[in-house]
């Protein structure tokens, strides 16, 4: 009887492995889809779901993403889109952190908010969504409020943390813990037509400087509203930053903040 790798190689089309064959392999060899995907990527086979990535990401890049662990702090407007895009990109492990349940006012903009998920924990909905979108991705749900008391444990062994919070105070706590653990932090925020993006590496304090004179508990979104499109735009920019950090490619928004104005369609860099 052939082993898993031999069986996969026999069925690959050139170097592409179809979803049907991944599923058959998991059933035949009594292993998870995640294990099938890992075996494929480590041995030069690309799951066909990622074939449109390959003109910008090579197979080694895809394997790096598979072996990466990213924490998403907040699973609402920004977080839902971030989790979705990370899963579709092929990031292997996602830690999703949020204490809340879905309410009706979330449904205008939050990707994971649907009528059948009202009253359901956001992290539980995220786990169900990722299982449907990409079963090779492991989502670890943490249904707790992030803070100084548990942040170190939550971010353990993560390669990048992603800020999808709506509290400036908690955002600054996240930045401090990332500093302590030497974890890069991708920050995003939204308010009405507007958004902000920055990436902070260990040893930098860009986020702390940016919010140094702002002690509000909540961000401007409480006053300017939250439409459907702003979180989708900013979340996508955050995922692009995560991808660059994980693969050590491109130019992240270090020591600067990208100010996003979708009303007048202006993107302005602010030095920090």
UniProtKB/TrEMBL annotation:
Write down a Pfam family by its short name. Answer: ThiF
Single Gene Ontology BP annotation:
cyclic threonylcarbamoyladenosine biosynthetic process
The residues the entry assigns to the signal sequence are none
Taking every annotated instance into account, which residue ranges of this chain make up the domain THIF-type NAD/FAD binding fold? 50-270
CDD domains (alphabetical):
ThiF_MoeB_HesA_family (cd00757)
Q: Name one GO molecular function term.
A: ubiquitin-like modifier activating enzyme activity
- Superkingdom as given in the UniProt entry: Bacteria
- This chain belongs to the protein called Molybdopterin biosynthesis sulfur carrier protein sulfurylase
Q: Which organism is it from?
A: Syntrophotalea carbinolica (strain DSM 2380 / NBRC 103641 / GraBd1)
Q: Which gene encodes it?
A: moeB-1
């Amino acid at each position: 009887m052939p082993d898993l790798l031999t069986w996969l190689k026999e069925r690959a089309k050139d170097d592409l492995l179809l979803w049907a064959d991944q599923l058959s392999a998991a059933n035949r060899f009594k292993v998870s889809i995640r294990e099938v995907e890992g075996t494929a990527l480590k041995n030069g086979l690309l799951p066909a779901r990622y074939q449109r990535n390959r003109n910008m990401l090579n197979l080694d890049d895809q394997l790096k993403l598979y072996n990466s662990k990213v924490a998403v702090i907040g699973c609402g407007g920004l977080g839902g889109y971030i989790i979705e895009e990370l899963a579709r990109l092929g990031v292997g492990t996602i830690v999703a952190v949020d204490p809340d349940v879905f309410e009706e006012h979330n449904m205008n903009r939050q990707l994971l908010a649907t009528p059948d998920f009202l009253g359901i924990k956001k992290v539980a909905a995220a786990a169900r969504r990722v299982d449907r979108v990409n079963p090779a991705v492991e989502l670890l749900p943490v249904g707790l409020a992030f803070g100084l008391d548990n942040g170190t444990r939550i971010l353990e062994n993560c390669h990048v943390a992603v800020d999808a919070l709506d509290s400036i105070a908690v955002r600054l706590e996240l930045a401090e813990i990332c500093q302590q653990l030497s974890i890069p932090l991708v920050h995003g925020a939204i308010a009405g037509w507007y958004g902000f993006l920055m990436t902070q590496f260990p040893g930098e304090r860009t986020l702390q400087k940016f919010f140094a004179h702002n002690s509000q508990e909540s961000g401007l979104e409480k006053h300017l509203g939250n439409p459907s499109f702003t979180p989708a735009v900013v979340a996508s920019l955050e995922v692009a930053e995560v991808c660059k950090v994980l693969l050590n490619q491109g130019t992240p928004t270090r020591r600067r903040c990208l100010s996003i104005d979708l009303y007048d369609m202006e993107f302005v860099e602010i030095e920090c």
